[in-house]
């Protein structure tokens, strides 16, 4: 067994190619060689070659009908691709790994793989990251493990907030609420609803925020909670144009128990002008008078 | 008498008594060039719609919908109120064909309209239930106010000592309030942490059950493997003993042959 990874790679390649003398590929031997080659490359910091070796090893495992090992190799390949910053390969590899995990019937590692991919792509390709998060959440929900999906929903909403797409972020918080409802996780549910209301207020969409609050109040658990009380105080403060009250609610302990990004948004409230409702309709009429 | 005859007779009767139809008269009056009348009629119709909405609101048990409708009513009300000054200006303008008394009447009409708009109820009943804590707090406030009021009256004359005592009491109460606020904040954090821990434990419970079943399975597998291994090892050892026996036997034979050779060489 030669210790040079390149020689191992070429040997393994020869073992898998079908020629006149070799009528069936020897996947087992090839896979072993590929794995060893990959280790050798990693030790010598040749990440590109290690990644290729891992890809081939994964294919070999797949041919040997062991999707679990194949998925593990794919994940390692994806991690190396992340180090090399080849982003579309990162997404592809993690997706393939997730599919292989689903083949094994293990939903949790599948969604974990997609979650890792999304986390890697958050900064560079946020839209892809969002897609990956959504897929991961769907896998978990299909399997009935909603509680694991909470973190993914929160991360996804954070990405939307960074992209300043506030309605989408609020939608995701409401989806978190639905998932929490299924598992009777009332605290997370109420926190999710309060976060959604704050996001709407940050986007200075008072009507939407009020509508959201009204919708959420249908749910008993939310209506009797501390979070609902804070939401009422915020909304009445907005309606009365009381900036002091808004700031007081934003620095209260209920809001400080939410996610960091939401706390940041809340501290920046109120965005834009906060005038009492009468003033707002005055603006509407003036425009009508001019036309 | 056929149906057509009935319809034609009904129409002619209606036409005859049209002059007694108040609404229609109002509309006929309005469709003139008079800007004031037109605007006034629009205001009146808007007022009627708002009143209708308030009536729809009262049997509404769904609090969320009630809140939303109240917001709607508030918005229309303010819009109408802003239009009143314009109406007043129109009312004061002299229009040909209108007498002076009618002008005064118009002004009065505008004022009464404004009163009617302002009288529309636009807030729902205060929310009941859910937060008993805050109401009991305000009760406490109220009691101290009453006691202050009593002290202010002439039930006793305030001396220097009692003034000092009262001041000290106030200061200590304020310090107590501050301390209690601090404790309340700490309790809030604790409550949040406890609820999060609760949810985390709920989340981990099914995982632990899974781990439990898997370890049980692994333990039984190990046990059976151990038994099989033991059998194999004893068999192996016995065969090894057998081999050792044969080897020793061979060595003995070799030694015996050697001795025999020696004896044979030594004897002849």
Automatic annotation (TrEMBL), chain A:
Major location (coarse): membrane
Entry's localization field: Membrane
Source species, domain of life: Eukaryota
Keyword list, A-Z: ER-Golgi transport, Membrane, Protein transport, Transport
Signal peptide location: none
InterPro entries named in the record: NSF_attach (IPR000744), TPR-like_helical_dom_sf (IPR011990)
Membrane topology: Peripheral membrane protein
SUPFAM superfamilies named among the record's database cross-references: TPR-like
One Pfam family linked to the record: SNAP
UniProt entry tagged with the keyword Ribonucleoprotein: no
Main function: Required for vesicular transport between the endoplasmic reticulum and the Golgi apparatus.
Similarity remark: Belongs to the SNAP family.
PANTHER family recorded: GAMMA-SOLUBLE NSF ATTACHMENT PROTEIN (PTHR13768:SF2), SOLUBLE NSF ATTACHMENT PROTEIN SNAP (PTHR13768)
Entry protein name: Gamma-soluble NSF attachment protein
The gene coding this protein: LOC104718271
From TrEMBL, chain B:
Record-linked Gene3D superfamilies: 1.20.5.110
UniProt keyword Membrane, yes or no: yes
SMART domains per record: t_SNARE
Transmembrane residue ranges: 242-260
Keywords (A to Z) from UniProt: Membrane, Protein transport, Transmembrane, Transmembrane helix, Transport
PROSITE patterns on file: T_SNARE
Record domain T-SNARE coiled-coil homology: where: 170-232
Name under which the protein is recorded: Syntaxin-73 isoform X1
Organism: Camelina sativa (False flax)
Organismal lineage: Eukaryota, Viridiplantae, Streptophyta, Embryophyta, Tracheophyta
Gene name tied to this protein: LOC104699753
């Amino acid at each position: 067994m030669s210790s040079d990874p390149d020689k191992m790679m070429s040997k393994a390649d020869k073992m898998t190619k079908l020629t006149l003398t070799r009528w069936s590929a020897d996947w087992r031997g090839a896979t072993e060689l590929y794995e060893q080659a990959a280790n050798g490359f990693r030790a010598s910091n040749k990440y590109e070659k290690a990644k290729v070796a891992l890809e081939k090893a994964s294919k070999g495992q797949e041919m040997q009908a062991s999707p679990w090992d194949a998925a593990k190799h794919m994940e390692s390949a994806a991690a190396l691709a992340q180090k090399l910053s080849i982003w579309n390969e990162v997404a592809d590899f993690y997706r393939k790994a997730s599919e292989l995990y689903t083949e094994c019937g293990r939903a949790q590692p599948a969604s974990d793989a997609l979650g890792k991919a999304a986390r890697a792509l958050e900064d560079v390709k946020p839209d892809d990251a969002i897609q990956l998060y959504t897929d991961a959440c769907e896998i978990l929900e299909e399997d009935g493990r909603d509680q694991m999906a909470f973190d993914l929903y929160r991360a996804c909403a954070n990405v939307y907030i960074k992209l300043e797409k506030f309605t989408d972020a609020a939608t995701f918080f409401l989806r978190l609420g639905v998932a929490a409802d299924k598992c009777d996780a009332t605290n997370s549910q109420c926190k999710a609803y309060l976060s959604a209301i704050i996001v709407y207020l940050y986007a200075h969409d008072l009507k939407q925020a009020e509508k959201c609050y009204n919708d959420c109040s249908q749910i008993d658990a939310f209506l009797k909670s501390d979070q609902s009380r804070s939401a009422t105080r915020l909304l009445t403060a907005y309606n009365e144009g009381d900036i002091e009250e808004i700031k007081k609610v934003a620095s209260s302990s209920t809001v400080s128990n939410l996610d960091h990004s939401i706390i940041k948004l809340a501290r920046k409230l109120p965005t834009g002008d906060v005038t009492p409702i009468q003033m707002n309709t005055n603006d509407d009429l003036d425009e009508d008078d001019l036309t | 008498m056929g149906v057509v005859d009935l319809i034609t007779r009904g129409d002619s009767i209606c036409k005859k008594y049209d002059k007694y139809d108040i609404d229609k008269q109002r509309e006929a009056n309005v469709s003139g060039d008079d800007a004031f009348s037109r605007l006034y009629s629009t205001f009146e119709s808007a007022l009627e719609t708002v009143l209708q909405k308030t009536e729809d609101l009262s049997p509404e048990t769904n609090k969320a919908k009630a809140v939303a409708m109240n917001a709607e009513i508030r918005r229309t009300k303010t819009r109408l109120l802003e239009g009143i000054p314009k109406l007043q200006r129109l009312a004061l303008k002299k229009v040909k064909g209108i007498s002076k008394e009618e002008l005064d009447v118009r002004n009065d009409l505008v004022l009464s309209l404004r009163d009617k708009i302002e009288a529309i109820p636009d807030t729902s009943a205060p929310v009941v239930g859910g937060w008993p804590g805050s109401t009991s707090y305000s009760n406490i406030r109220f009691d101290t106010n009453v006691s202050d009021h009593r002290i202010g009256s002439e039930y006793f004359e305030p001396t220097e000592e009692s003034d000092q005592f009262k001041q000290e009491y106030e200061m200590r109460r304020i310090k107590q309030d501050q301390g209690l606020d601090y404790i309340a904040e700490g309790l809030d954090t604790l409550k949040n942490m406890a609820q999060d821990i609760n949810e985390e434990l709920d989340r981990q419970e099914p995982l632990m059950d899974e781990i439990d079943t898997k370890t049980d399975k692994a333990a039984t597998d190990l046990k059976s493997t151990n038994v099989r291994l033991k059998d194999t090892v004893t068999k192996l050892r016995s065969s090894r003993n057998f081999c050792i026996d044969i080897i020793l036997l061979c060595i003995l034979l070799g030694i015996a042959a050697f001795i025999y050779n020696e004896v044979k060489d030594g004897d002849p």
